[in-house]
Fold this protein.
Amino acid sequence: MSNYILGIDIGGTTAKLGLFSEEHFPEIIVKRSVKTRPDDGGKYILPDIAEGIKQLFEDEGIDKSQIDGIGVGVPGPVIIGDRPGQTLVNKCVNLGWGVKDVASELSELTGIEKVVVENDANAAALGEIICGSVRDMAEKIGTYRKVTEVLVTIGTGIGGGIVRDGQIIRGVFGCAGEIGHIKIAPQHPLLAKLRAAGADINTFDDYEYFASATGIIRFAREGAKFFESSLRDCENMGAREVFEAAREGDALALEVRDFFYDTFGMGLAAVASTLDPDVFTIGGGVSGEGPLLLGGIRESYRRYAFHASTETEFRLAALGNDAGMIGAAVPFYM
Amino acid sequence: MSNYILGIDIGGTTAKLGLFSEEHFPEIIVKRSVKTRPDDGGKYILPDIAEGIKQLFEDEGIDKSQIDGIGVGVPGPVIIGDRPGQTLVNKCVNLGWGVKDVASELSELTGIEKVVVENDANAAALGEIICGSVRDMAEKIGTYRKVTEVLVTIGTGIGGGIVRDGQIIRGVFGCAGEIGHIKIAPQHPLLAKLRAAGADINTFDDYEYFASATGIIRFAREGAKFFESSLRDCENMGAREVFEAAREGDALALEVRDFFYDTFGMGLAAVASTLDPDVFTIGGGVSGEGPLLLGGIRESYRRYAFHASTETEFRLAALGNDAGMIGAAVPFYM
């Protein structure tokens, strides 16, 4: 009888459950989705997930004794508790959680002893280095100078995860890699142009206010109010539609894309002046734009980075939507 | 016969040599100063230092066989070389050096086998955690959650050194902790006021352009051109004179001090959103202003930091002007 690992990625709307076997990791044998209900302080979330796990075991004919462990990724800071090995979730605003011992609770609910909890971006960063796009760097560099990777996800917000020498850097309050909350003042002319036109936008705010998918949409929408653009008639505008319009030559979309590159690269340069990582791995929805996006970001990064660290490597994340589940499960595979 | 360690702190104008004994570390037995000559690609610097070491040995009646090792701090990035254990200086602009194997060269010049080279701020950060102001934290926290310290020196520029779990974080290009080169746009009203008055200042530049001693002097000087201030007649203005004038109630000095606090705290918040350290240790000339300075910085930091990491600890560096020598020598004491 083979052994299995469960990887769970808890998001604001759904929790994704992935079943892995040790032999074929990181291939996912079966996936499930469980709705996350943040009501009443998020107290239904873990019981709902436990029910989903039970169901999955029944359907697949698996006994819990065959599970080596459950890895859980959460969208919030994770801190080290007072007991050796204990981790605690340190507030997940969009799940309704305060400080919560997710590992112990899920262990109790499922009867599976080993549960580890990690911040979702940190988990994804670990996943990319163990079995994703950074794996070859780790293998090439060997043991005496090891890889520091900063994974950055561009989606609704900007998430960040840091892995150094195979270890996640969590930070004293679980906030290491929370780079989306760096305060910045973009220097791109679009900002002044929009303000002059009367747009309701901030000139100084969180990095993710400007350089996330939400930021791209915000600036495209505001721009379309004041300037001629094909985006004006775009009803369900996403970052994808803005990039699409830019490729078709729409002047506003081109400017918004340029604003995004410029501002995103500026933020990464600040991260590099602190940590000087070997590689930035770019993930999240917007990273679907591919190599062209990577080129735009790298060019802007070089403009703002310290002269001795302009040659930092950039890669696209390889694990896609499954990164959270895979990264969460990695500790039981390593 | 007792054993000794040499700690050398190479700066732009002088190299400081400190002799330590293993028993009384970090007490300095004797100090020497050697002028640094950056001429001709800085080729005289190491021979001059070697000559200073020889002299010191003669005067103190020490044989080189009694030296356990030489630790060298340099004002530039240090990278890991291709040979195990090898470090290389990766350009020291103000010493005239390119990529240079300082350890091997100094070893050859002195006949002392063990020479280790480290970035000066990294060395100082290590010194503070081993035998300075952060020592008690390291001891209290114990082994399973260890200390991450960011040492920040406020002087001519802003230097930074990072130690995590007793190990220096160097970065792939030796640029980790080069936080003085983070690009920022201060949000303090003084900036707009000075620009409106016609002052020749940038609104977006390196962190150290604004928030170093040089920055304090720059903004005080520019301000005194346009606004009434006791600083107008100050001939040899240093950061100390500006803080002094602020304590005496000078309106411009108060505003410059407030600008400094605000901008300095903003930069540290960016660092914390990347690394979320246990403690910021504040050193360098300006840190001589003491606890009041620390209070001003902490207040501003809290304004800009991510909500979950506002309670980061702040300490004043304890090792003062000797920090460089002590920190450089630490590897032979640990």
